[in-house]
Amino acid sequence: MKREVIEAVIEDLKAGNTPTITVEDVPAFSEEATAGDPHIGPEALAAIVASLTEADVPTFERALRAMDEGDLAWLGFKVVYDPQAAVGNVDNEVTKKYGEQGSADGESLVFFCNDAKEIVSSRELSPRDVFQAKDVTRGPSMHNDQFDGLTWASEPLFGKVRVWLLGASDAAVEVASLADQVGFHVVAVDYDPAFLNAERFPNAERIMLHGGNFSELPNMPARPEDYVCVLTRGHMFDPESCIWALQNGVHYVGMMGCAGKNSTVHDLVINAGITEADWDRVKRPIGLKFGAKTPAELAIAIVAELVDVRYQQRYSDEARARHEKSLGRA
Predict the structure, then answer these.
(1) Would 323 be classed as within a structural domain?
(2) Are 132 and 90 within 8 A, CB to CB?
(3) Which end of the chain is more exposed for a tag (fewer CB within 10 A), N or C?
(4) Cβ(86)–Cβ(150) under 8 Å?
(5) Distance between CA atoms of 144 and 225, rounded to whole angstroms?
(6) What are the residues facing 147 on neighbouring strands?
(7) Which of 130, 156, 182 is the last residue of a domain?
């Protein structure tokens, strides 16, 4: 959600006005995202927005502070469509029972939650509400229809990580598709329109280089928080790609290829003035190791690693420690 939208909401609520929040601001309520779900959609969002009062201001102010601090946080939405069922239903056949009360009340609610599981809302939540509210950190609607009478949605308060795919190889095509699905902003770069085109990269930002090579790459600035996947066809422009990524100081850079080829790239990169310490920052080979061979399998390995790196980058120290312990890496 954009900062200016939240600021406008706070201003409206303090003035006693009904704020404006659209499905463009909260895509989890869009018709596309909620197709087939009769309980959540643009009308549900409009009803929640109409119910907001000045008591909700602290929730949105906490959201602003999270954005300022770079916190991994979300605005969550409790969507009640059957108040009696939401409050009365306390159990199902799978999850444990959270006391003798279901939801705290039969009213919808906007709340704040971050990766440290801090919750801010205008009303008190029941233990089961808290259980479900915390899980908005898993995605836009993790616990929809788990209990009768209500569902949940969320909107992240942080932007997408930008992933550069240097080279429009077949592996890059598969990486672009998967990375887009898990919420990365994908930028595909190549010089050949036969490989870099809308058909192969329909959801990626595409940058076409000229001259039949990667000589224009230095003209493109990358940000320190960006990720770079070096996937050039035939590995022909891997050295230039690694040099560009390291000179721009990106957060993550990985490269495909066998040890012999990586040794050659190493020499070319070092001869270009890159230090050994910087070269050691290049993850090689790129991706998690599980024997991936085909482009689609390699994409799974690569995107899985990108997701892991993203979690480590964005988590608070406390949450990162829990994450590493849960994976047996602490």
Answers:
(1) no
(2) no
(3) C
(4) yes
(5) 33
(6) none
(7) 156
Spatial distance between the Cα atoms of 256 and 48, rounded to a whole number of angstroms: 48
Q: Are residues 244 and 277 in the same domain?
A: yes
pLDDT band per the 50, 70, 90 thresholds, residue 32? confident
Are the CB atoms for 109 and 123 separated by under 8 Å? yes
- Residue 150 phi/psi, 5-degree rounding, is -155, 160
| Domain span at 166 | 162-314
Phi-psi region of 188 (alpha: psi -120 to 50; beta: other; left: phi over 0): beta
**Inter-residue contact 220 to 241 (CB < 8 Å):** no
Beta strands 109-114 and 119-121, pairing class? antiparallel
Q: How confident is the model at residue 180 (pLDDT cuts 50, 70, 90)?
A: very high
Q: How far apart are CA 153 and CA 139, in angstroms?
A: 8
Model confidence at 117, in pLDDT bands (50, 70, 90)? Answer: confident
Give CA–CA dist 186/164, Å, rounded: 6
